[in-house]
Amino acid sequence: MAEHVNIERRRQAIYGWLLLSPAAILLTTFAFYPSIATLWTSLFSRGTRRNPTEFVGGENYTDLFADPTFWLVVKNNLIYAAATIPISIFIALGMALWANSKIPARGFVRTAYFTPTVLPMIAAANLWLFFYTPGLGVLDQIGSLFGLPSINWLGQPETALWAVIIVTIWKEAGFFMIFYLAALQTIPEDLKEAADIEGASRFTYTRRIVLPLLMPTTLFIMVNALINSVKLIDHLFILTKGGPNDASKLILYYIWEMAFAFFDAPHAAAMTILVLIVLGIVAGIKFTYLDKRTHYQ
Amino acid sequence: MSAIFRHIETFGALLLAFIWISPLLFAFWAAFHSTTDAVNFNVMAPWTLDNLRTAWAGAPWLRYFLNTFLLVSVVLIGQFVITTLAGFAFAKVQFPGKDFVFILVLMQLFILPEVLIVENYVMVSRIGLFDTIIGVGMPYMASAFGIFLMRQAFKSVPIELHDAARVEGCGWFGILWRVYVPLARPTYLAYALVSVSTHWNNFLWPLIVTNSPETRPLTVGLSIFGAPENGVDISVISAATMMSIAPLLIAFLVFQRQFVQAFLRAGIK
User: Fold this and answer.
1) Is the same domain home to A94 and A189?
2) Contact flag B9-A98 (C-beta cutoff 8 Å)
3) Which residue of B has its CA nearest to A33?
4) I want to staple A268 with a disulfide (CB 3.0 to 4.6 A). Which of A259, B116, B257, B261 is the partner?
5) Which CATH number is A89's domain given?
6) Taking CB atoms and an 8 Å cutoff, what residues of chain A touch B27?
7) What is the per-residue pLDDT for B72?
8) Where do the H-state alpha helices sit in A115-214?
9) Which chain A positions have a beta carbon within 8 Å of B10's beta carbon?
10) Are residues A141 and A276 in the same domain?
């Protein structure tokens, strides 16, 4: 009998690994091995015809830390995250509350909020180019109605990053709305009735009952928004190319530029490792701290 | 008092909806008007198809559409096969090291393929898949997100059905194919919609690994077409943009309910 159980267990182990092998091979090839290879590359100098690559330890990292552009890009990305995450979550929440209430033309409202989500970032950037172009763009035309001077939104360092931020918010708010909408629909009707009997206003009901119940959704969205603030950079290629004077350059764009425009893989690799460390910390917080705290339903 | 408040809210909701949709509406309008009329907001200007014709003639769009279609299909088929097998292993098979491997898979949710572009480019070139559609799709096939989704779907299948199929003489693959896959159909549909819209819209990775019109997907084609150094005017860019988003946008408007539900199912675990 014991032997029978043993055979069965061994058979399951073989099946398990067989079923897993295609995924394991691909994940190793395109996630784990490249992560380690990136770390490896980041420790070597860039090879030229005259100087072959050699081990330089942390030199690529110290180069980065001494590079003012790197710090500017980090600062830009922090602003990008600090603006897009709360604003898009706030707008998404407002959208969801509206799209869930009994207002006329609700179908149209929902569609309008969600549509940007299905567009490619490149297409979204093209649409917004029309708004931002100086002189001819929609924003300038509206401004000129009120006698405001023409502003080159994408061409001056003070506004370029914000122009990029607005497109990101426009693109992701509707996506986050969907998660809030789903969560709102799971809140039982009797809570609303109880609040009405107690004479609580709609504002109190929203603040005291709805918002706390939406907390797990908010945390989920926050993690997503954080990841997006690293990876949503496609529109830079159309709108600003990171300029002017790197004023709107974000980390992933800088990595791309470093590797594929300046052909400097070691520094790009060092930067990639730094991003991976940050993402790893986020993952750690998500899987340990947040997952334990938010499962109170 | 509350009636007034309600009206203000309705107005706010509609205003925001209008603001949100206006870039799209404006580009649509501009795509069918001459550039001078478009930039001067000449509302009464005649409609024209010239921009569409110019845009269509300016790049091999049909090829781009085909490439995107092939790319999306290849990724989806690969994902279905790989995530089904792995999800089933994690949900229903006991084997040593399972928990550890599962944590490794979850880690990939945060090791974004986008961030590993440098080494993935080296890898794809090394295995000879540079500038091929398979090469564009391959890093996304073993999606950790998909594996997680399939594992959840398979976990909810009652074990009685599994046992019944086994008594009937089904092997492991028979059970997977005849019991689990049909029962997880809604999850497959949801995953398919999310996957297709993600990869239809993907840009950075295809930009890096494609190098010719024969493999370039729509997004990359569109970015090259609209590049300022090509000097294309804004109405023609609008026309090209509209053209390239039309299939997905129309599909979305027609299947809106399913689409939204798919995103919901995929997002909430």
Assistant:
1) yes
2) yes
3) B119
4) A259
5) 1.10.3720.10
6) 126-127, 130
7) 94
8) 121-132, 138-145, 157-185, 189-197, 202-205, 211-213
9) 103-104
10) yes
For residue A4, the enclosing domain spans 1-41
Q: How confident is the model at residue B269 (pLDDT cuts 50, 70, 90)?
A: very low
Segments of chain A scoring below 70 in pLDDT = 1-2, 49, 135-136, 290-297
Domain B60-267 has CATH 1.10.3720.10: yes
Read off the pLDDT of residues B20-33 as tens digits, 9 standing for 90 and up: 998 888 888 888 88
Query: What local confidence, expressed as pLDDT, does residue A154 receive?
Result: 83
Answer for the pair A60, A266: CB distance below 8 angstroms, yes or no.
Answer: yes
Q: Check whether residue A162 and residue A240 sit in a common domain.
A: yes
- Check A23 against B83: CB less than 8 A apart: yes
Quick one: DSSP state of residue A55? B
What local confidence, expressed as pLDDT, does residue A168 receive? 94
Residues of chain A with Cβ-Cβ distance to B144 below 8 Å are 27
* Claim to verify: residue A262 and residue A177 sit in the same structural domain: yes
Q: Report pLDDT for A173.
A: 92
For chain B, what are the domain ranges?
60-267
**pLDDT range class, residue B266, cuts 50, 70, 90:** low
Residue B48's pLDDT band, with cuts at 50, 70 and 90, is confident
Does the beta-carbon distance from B104 to A32 stay under 8 Å? yes
CB contact under 8 A, B142 and A23: yes
Q: How far apart are CA A38 and CA B116, in angstroms?
A: 8
Which residue(s) pair with A44 in the sheet? A55
Q: Does A174 reside within a domain?
A: yes
Q: What is the number of residues in chain B? A: 269
Residues of chain A contacting residue B104, judged by C-beta atoms under 8 Å apart: 27, 32
Which of A25, A60, A119, A291 to mutate to test binding with chain B, by most B CBs within 10 Å of its CB? A119
Residue A122 to residue A172: CA distance in whole angstroms: 14
Tell me if the bond preceding A120 is cis, omega within 30° of 0.
Answer: no
Residue A288 lies in a domain: yes
- Summarised one tens digit per residue, pLDDT across range A141-155 is 777 777 777 777 888
For chain B, first and last CA: distance in Å?
41
Say if A83 falls within a structural domain: yes
Compute and round to an integer the Cα radius of gyration of chain A.
25
Q: How far apart are CA A109 and CA A113, in angstroms?
A: 6
A37 lies in the same domain as A169? no
Q: Is A126–B226 a contact, with Cβ atoms under 8 angstroms apart?
A: yes
Are B115 and A130 an interchain contact pair (Cβ–Cβ within 8 Å)? no
CA distance B28 to B243: 10
Q: Choosing among A127, A223, A233, A250, which should be mutated to test the B contact, i.e. which has the most B CBs within 10 A?
A: A127
Same structural domain, A185 and A75: yes
Looking at the domain assignment, is residue A135 inside a domain? yes
- Give the total number of structural domains in chain A: 2
Cβ neighbours of A9 (radius 10 Å): 12
Question: A30 and B142: CB-CB below 8 Å?
Answer: yes
For residue A208, the distance in angstroms to the closest alpha carbon of chain B comes to 19
Q: CA of A40 to nearest chain B CA: how many angstroms apart?
A: 10
Tell me the per-residue pLDDT of B218-250, one tens digit each, with 9 for 90 and over: 999 888 887 766 666 778 888 888 988 888 888
Give the pLDDT of residue A297.
36
